[in-house]
Amino acid sequence: MQLNEYNVSDMFDQLKNLASLMGNAKEVRRRMEAMQAELGRQTVEADAGAGAVRVTANGKLEIVGVRFDPVMIATLVEGTDREADRQMIEDLVTAATNAALAKARELVQQEMAKITGGLDLSGFPGMDQLTG
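Below the sequence we write its predicted structure tokens.
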């Protein structure tokens, strides 16, 4: 990558933001710990199969709920191809779980941006521990 005037200006702006954060390290740590606790209370949901499977995750990237549509369950009980049903359910749970976790990661990034002023700290050691 070649540096131009914009890249250099942007780089110095990022360094200024980092210096400001480092100067307020205790306050930043306190805010991040509060954010982590809040993320544990916030949830996101995603579904697969037009709502056949719905998964809820929290901001700590934990799965906190899985719900199956009763109509889908009733249909499966009546069906005769158990292996196909099992594979379909596994695929739906996997898809809904991955979608819920993606939404939870977005939530974490949004909350981090509030604290860091948009400064990307993902490459800094220990940041993953603060964000769950």
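The two ends are 32 Å apart (CA to CA).
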